[in-house]
Amino acid sequence: MHVTQKDIARKLGISITTVSRALAGYSDVAEETRQRVLQTAQEMGYSPHLLARRLQKQRTDTIGFIMPTLAPRFSDPFFSEFIAGVGNEAASHEYDLLVSTHPPESESEMKAYERAAKGGWVDGLIIVRTREKDERIRLLCQYKFPFVSFGRTNESLDFAYVDEDGETGIKLLTQHLIDLGHRRIGFIRPPKDMMAGHFRLQGFMKAMAENDLPVRPEWIVEGDMTQRGGEQSMAVLLDVQPGITAVIAGNDLMAIGAMHCAQQRGLEVGKDISVAGFDDIPLAAYVKPSLTTLRQPIYEIGRMTCRMLIDLINGRFSHPPQVLLVPQLIIRSSTAPPASD
Amino acid sequence: MHVTQKDIARKLGISITTVSRALAGYSDVAEETRQRVLQTAQEMGYSPHLLARRLQKQRTDTIGFIMPTLAPRFSDPFFSEFIAGVGNEAASHEYDLLVSTHPPESESEMKAYERAAKGGWVDGLIIVRTREKDERIRLLCQYKFPFVSFGRTNESLDFAYVDEDGETGIKLLTQHLIDLGHRRIGFIRPPKDMMAGHFRLQGFMKAMAENDLPVRPEWIVEGDMTQRGGEQSMAVLLDVQPGITAVIAGNDLMAIGAMHCAQQRGLEVGKDISVAGFDDIPLAAYVKPSLTTLRQPIYEIGRMTCRMLIDLINGRFSHPPQVLLVPQLIIRSSTAPPASD
DNA sequence: TTGAAAGCGCTAACAC
DNA sequence: GTGTTAGCGCTTTCAA
Asked: I need a surface site. Which of A341, B22, B97, B321 has the fewest CB within 10 A?
């Protein structure tokens, strides 16, 4: 079984208290005693029981991350990169990371948040993929439970977040297309409830408006953020609006699906039609043609989110920090001047 | 603060024990008492303190997953899909998933395993990306700590695993290329210490041998499993061995990099040269040309691995289960008969 | 410098 | 049916 302090104490004929203090490095333990304890602990293969310690200390040194996953073929490079960032940062502060997975907006998801906020087995939570009206955030605010979200919401709540400035990003990208000569630009928007999509769409609308270009409602279709979704939305767009010369997709995955769809129909992307995405996933540079997109440093965002949360947990902020990052425009081959017709 | 059973007990003027039993659904509690307890618990917003329960029960209902991550731009669709599978399965058994991240073969990684095996805060571990000589597995076997790995090793240890039959898979794929008429086939092999790579290479060698085809040592180059790595290895291959008509990459990411490299040099993939991968990541169908590959149902593997671990933890096996899955050959456009020259 | 005792929140054997 | 008691492994007053 597991070696405990009690075992060490018994073996040495001293009290548990002394063992505990020796191990913890308190100064009021005789040097010789300390050595004997350390030595014996080593020999017996002692290792502290974290649960017990945490129960006593009333802090878990664990942060929680509830992944919104759409089963079953769920595969989004965002998450591995984000988790790597969060996990590495957490580890460097000696925090554990507790991950659970739940379908977004499901009952089980809310239960998980409830449990997390009240179950006392995580000190704080990280939220991603915020929604316009985000129940999760409302819940945590109400409980005053520490959390940091990657993404904002449309509600007037004051909480800690780090977010991309998607509006500015898409404006940059849209302007790039306009500068190339495009006038009729389609937009595959993220699902309505996804807050990031809101900003991205807004950036598109503003850029068009600022250039006095009209946007027909049919130019905007919704996509579900997967390649498949991008492919389907592109099909709708091309069916209804063949006059479009460029398409911006709400993320790279959809952009890749959209390119695929265009290519199926014999269009040459980067010539007959321009396509752009958002995220700069590693594959964006490797698809054919390589994808023009907006770069988000997901790994760094993961780290930053985690660091902010740990600082928050430890009361190192007087006010919830809020960070906005401007994505970087990466121009590749999928965007070019419109075919002169 | 946190509402405890004690609070409920005090409020109702009954003992903590009764509260505990009412909540746990024991039958020896008066129906009326039970109702009052449940009701009050509800009103006061009680929620069990999991750490305390776990400490008492001496089981954590948590499984651990130590992700081998190569920082900093770590992005591998494998992990998000795998975690989703593990996480969903874990959740359905009411297990939590504790994730930590460490660079493979690092000291910190081994410390993490040590802590996990002895720290008593996870009931079992999941291992992925096994190595030929895998210290992690040796350690856990030695401690008799429950774990299931996705992947085998080259050592004679008896432990629970689920693995792809990479050898059979690659044989299928190699035979496909040979049947198309290819004779000079290159192989971008995974790093030497990666056990899966071992089997994949072996499948290639065997298929070639069975068809009495020679394999020149220069046809085999190592790649680091990223697109970049695939690109670089392909460059080496094409520089040294321009006569090659087909290349198999150790995974899809490298295959995509390899295609990119070939295309940069003006070769048409799926015509001038064939390229194939392994994994069938979702993007494989969306790159240009679409990638011939071997499908591994990662999500399902994640679920299965997790389920096996939970069964193992609960002593539902007399012998460590070992499962081998044959990947499915998915033929797409990146492979075709060699250009007749 | 060390030890006894209490307690973190919960469960479970045993008595009433 | 319900309460008393002990204990999971650890930390931390407080006294000695």
From this structure: A341
Q: How many domains does chain A have?
A: 3
Side chain identity at residue A176, one-letter code: H
pLDDT tens digit sequence for A312-333: 999 999 899 999 999 999 999 9
Task: Please check whether residue A274 lies inside any domain of the structure.
Answer: yes
Q: For residue B283, name the pLDDT band (cuts at 50, 70, 90).
A: confident
The pTM (predicted TM-score) of the whole model is 0.90
Do residues B75 and B191 both lie within one domain? no
Q: Which of B97, B119, B283 is closest, CB to CB, to A49? A: B119
CATH number of the domain at B264, please: 3.40.50.2300
Pair (A104, A150) in one structural domain: yes
* 8 Å CB contact of A91 and B78: no
pLDDT (average), residues B145-149: 96
Alpha helix locations (H) across chain B? 5-12, 16-24, 31-44, 50-57, 77-92, 107-119, 135-143, 166-180, 195-210, 227-240, 252-264, 298-313
* Nearest to A86, CA basis, from A64, A69, A113: A64
pLDDT in tens, B166-207: 999 999 999 999 999 999 999 999 999 899 999 999 999 999
**Chain A: nearest CA to B47, how far in angstroms?**
6
Q: Is the CB of A38 under 7 A from strand C?
A: no
Give the residue with minimal CA–C1' separation from C5.
A17
B153 and B142 in a common domain:
yes
